[in-house]
Amino acid sequence: MPKPANASSIQVAAIAAVWFVVLTILNVFAGGRLRGTIFYAVPVAFAAWYDLRLGFVFAAVGALSAWAGGSIPRPGFEDPVWIEGSWAFLKLSAAAIGTRIALRQLGKRHSK
Predict the structure, then answer these.
(1) Number of neighbours of residue 16 by Cβ within 10 angstroms
(2) How many H-runs (helices) and E-runs (strands) does the chain carry?
(3) What is the pLDDT of residue 112?
(4) Integer Cα distance of 23 and 90 in angstroms
(5) Is 13 exposed, middle or buried (0-12, 13-18, 19+ CB in 10 A)?
(6) pTM of the full predicted structure?
(7) Rounded CA gap, 57 and 76, in Å?
(8) Contact 17, 69 (CB under 8 A)
(9) Distance between CA 56 and CA 9 in Å, rounded?
(10) CA atoms of 101 and 35, how far apart (whole Å)
(11) Measured in whole angstroms, how far is the alpha carbon of residue 80 from the centre of its chain?
């Protein structure tokens, strides 16, 4: 049974959600030119630092944000949109996993 959300997980989720809302709005005004993965990876890493499952949730939200803001599909991409969206989700999921690995390594380093 999943553990109930506590105040800190709700705060992390709120901050990541606000980041994506602002990023989507900025991307719409920029004509979908905010395509850098780093823009989307920051809130994913922030969420994953707290909980890996939350990182995966925001990896999906990031892919949807990129689509809603116009970054997906990129110009000249002729395959279905879901392929590029899936690729974005995989990249952001890798950022979440990498964050957890780094967090674990930092914990090991500080416990010695």
Answers:
(1) 24
(2) 4, 0
(3) 59
(4) 19
(5) buried
(6) 0.84
(7) 28
(8) no
(9) 14
(10) 25
(11) 21
Nearest of 35, 112, 20 to residue 70 by alpha carbon: 35
Q: How far apart are CA 77 and CA 95, in angstroms?
A: 24
**Phi-psi category of residue 3: left, alpha or beta, with phi > 0 → left and psi -120 to 50 → alpha:** beta
For residue 2, the model assigns a pLDDT of: 53
Q: What does the block give as tokens for 33?
A: 């030119």
Question: Contact, 81 vs 67, CB < 8 A?
Answer: yes
Nearest of 58, 48, 57 to residue 101 by alpha carbon: 48
- What's the rounded Cα separation, in Å, for the pair 103 and 112? 15
Alpha helix segments (H runs only) across 6-80: 7-29, 37-50, 52-69
Each residue's pLDDT expressed in tens, for the chain with a length of 112 residues = 455 567 788 899 999 999 999 999 999 999 888 888 899 999 999 999 999 999 999 999 999 999 999 888 877 878 888 999 999 999 999 999 999 999 988 877 766 5
